[in-house]
Amino acid sequence: MKFFIDTANFDEITEAHSWGIISGVTTNPSLVAKEENISFHDRLREIAELVDGSVSGEVISLDAEGMIKEGLELANIAPNITVKLPMTPEGLKACKYFSEKGIKTNVTLIFSANQALMAARAGATYVSPFIGRLDDIGQSGSELISTIADIFAIHDIQTEIIAASIRHPQHITDAALAGADIATTPFKVLKQLFHHPLTDKGIEAFLADWKKREGQ
Ligand code: E4P
């Protein structure tokens, strides 16, 4: 499973990218709305220059024609831009259009296996099941990932599964075990993944022993 980072904040992306683990970035309108003093297109351009991988920018139109117009503008920003589209009939029409043009797509707001299958058949490069939001309503996000992964394997579907709406480190392990290709992870959760009390304790002990040696 690969890591994408789920943010539109350039400092967070720069920091996580420096760790060498980031293969792509996802944004959504809520994440972009948090960023001040920069246009959406300029921010996507900055990110796409820094990260050598898929950078998802989401459309806000509700009709296929509007999504196609917005998506073409986004795709013109850089070759690694992925057009993020909602899981609706209009979204899938736009998905089919972009797939025929060779433009990458990420169909978002996936909450069922049938939605994922339909998006894949419309030519989606990626589908994004939201596991945290499913857990929030008492359904199992990781079970959904596992079901989609099984269906894609049975039918030899190449669409990649992005586990989205990640809330905590256990979601990462669950998504990896369930067969997600990618987990798009908030910066806060990426930082949490480093921590283990025995790692911190081990570093302290090594340094303390080294200091003792220096004192000899
Ligand atoms: C993914 O593409 C979405 O932008 C994101 O993961 C949604 O997460 P949330 O449920 O925390 O808003």
UniProtKB/TrEMBL annotation:
Q: Which GO terms describe its molecular function?
A: aldehyde-lyase activity; transaldolase activity
Concerning InterPro entries, the annotation shows:
Aldolase_TIM, TAL/FSA, Transaldolase_3B, Transaldolase_3B/F6P_aldolase, Transaldolase_AS, TSA/FSA_arc/bac
Q: Where is this chain's protein located in or outside the cell?
A: Cytoplasm
The annotated pathway is: Carbohydrate degradation; pentose phosphate pathway; D-glyceraldehyde 3-phosphate and beta-D-fructose 6-phosphate from D-ribose 5-phosphate and D-xylulose 5-phosphate (non-oxidative stage): step 2/3
Q: Which GO terms describe its biological process?
A: carbohydrate metabolic process; pentose-phosphate shunt
> EC number(s)?
2.2.1.2
Q: Where is the active site?
A: K84 (schiff-base intermediate with substrate)
What's this chain's function? Transaldolase is important for the balance of metabolites in the pentose-phosphate pathway.
> What's the family?
Belongs to the transaldolase family. Type 3B subfamily.
Know the name of this protein?
A: Probable transaldolase
Species of origin reads Ureibacillus massiliensis 4400831 = CIP 108448 = CCUG 49529
